[in-house]
Design goal:
Elements: H1 18-23, E1 25-27, H2 28-37, H3 42-49, E2 54-56, H4 57-64
Antiparallel strand pairs: 1-2
Length: about 70
């Protein structure tokens, strides 16, 4: 079974389930791409989560409302 990008986190970074997405660690740049791809402001995300080197997929997806 080929994985698909369930959540378009990063091009070429296939995520096939919500559990897999939650367990994914994202760098600051990767998380920023996800937030911006959803049309939201990176500054709002940082205001709510704080600046970090790594973000959990769960944290990013919850903030996005998934």
């Amino acid at each position: 079974m080929q994985k698909t990008e369930l959540f378009p986190l990063i091009k070429g970074f296939p995520i096939s389930s919500i559990d897999e997405a939650y367990e994914t660690a994202l760098t600051t740049e990767q998380a920023k791409r996800v937030v911006l791809r959803h049309g939201l402001a990176w500054s709002d995300f940082i205001a709510d989560t704080g600046e970090k080197e790594l973000f959990s997929g769960e944290e990013v997806l919850n903030w996005l409302g998934y």
